[in-house]
Amino acid sequence: MATTARELFEHELRDAYDAEHRLVDSLKEMSSKVTDPELTKAFDLHREQTQRQIERLETVFSSIDFKPERESCKGIKGLITEFKEFTKEENSSTEVLNFFAAVSAKKVEHYEIVAYESLMQLARQLGLRDAQASLRENLAEELATADQLQGMSEKLLTELT
After folding, report:
1. For residue 116, which of 21, 1, 15 has the smallest C-alpha distance?
2. According to the CATH classification, is domain 5-158 in 1.20.1260.10?
């Protein structure tokens, strides 16, 4: 259990590291299940982006002389499980599945946004300037992806019957 800001930063960093690793695999699965070409492309591009985010997190670990380790991110794990369980049901129309996938991805993005915002706050408090730069870049990408998914989900919503 974390008792200092530094310990909490390390805990949250391990949590974010695990989340990004889980998402690399999950985005591949999500991409394979949707039929909307724009959504497929967005998932594929975000998967590549997520891999770079993992590399940036490894840079943060290095900047604080901490070994990159994963701590199970129960929040992301739950959101991924929710998507997998929904897609097991074979009676959903492709339009419903596409919309649900976009909304599921939005949930993940908002979780990540809050995670990176809190990491940024802690890094600022601890004076970890090198860490802040990498975290800021990851946060900017998550915000852009959330915005993109918002537009896609609005478009996909109009296709629901």
Report:
1. 15
2. yes
pLDDT band at 145 (very low <50, low <70, confident <90, very high): very high
The pLDDT of residue 161 is above 70: no
- DSSP class of 140: H
Identity at 102, one-letter amino acid code:
A
Residue-wise pLDDT tens digits, 10-66: 999 999 999 999 999 999 999 999 999 999 999 999 999 999 999 999 999 999 999
Dihedral angle sign, alpha carbons of residues 70, 75, 81, 86:
negative
Torsion of CA 70, 71, 76, 80, to 10 degrees: 70
Are the C-beta atoms of residues 21 and 61 closer than 8 Å to each other?
no
Copy the structure tokens of residue 63: 């900047």
| Whole-angstrom distance, CA of residue 122 vs CA of residue 79 | 25
Alpha helix locations (H) across 2-128?
5-33, 37-63, 74-88, 94-126
- Find the mean pLDDT for residues 58-82: 97
pTM over cut 0.85: yes
Tokens representing residue 16 in the block: 């974010």
What's the CA gap between 112 and 27, in Å, rounded?
A: 14
